[in-house]
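Why do we care about 3D structure at all? Because function follows from shape, and shape follows, mostly, from sequence. That is the central idea of this module. The next example makes it concrete: a single protein chain, its amino acid sequence, and then its structure expressed as tokens.
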Amino acid sequence: MPKYLLTYKGAATDTADMTPEQHEAVMAAWGEWIGRTGDALVDVGSPLAESTSVVDDGTEGTATPLSGYSIIQADDIDGAKAHVKGHPFLSDGNGNFAVDVFEIAPMPEM
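And the structure:
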């Protein structure tokens, strides 16, 4: 079954800046999503921290603002997108956050 990388775009709120009640609500929302995703969730992933971008001309730049990732499996990209509906990272509804879905292609033989 194909695997899909979900990347979380947008600057997530640091949990240190949340009240205990806000943190609990966020964790509960993630727990609900994890429960709904079930066996399709291959790797819940992790938040991402400090970043940079190394460019092919030897310079450095600003990395795309990614907050984290997860890996799921689904029959096709539409099935993968279905797991993103109701995702807690998209709960603000203000257009500042997105979940990008990429199929993880098999590595070509070397």
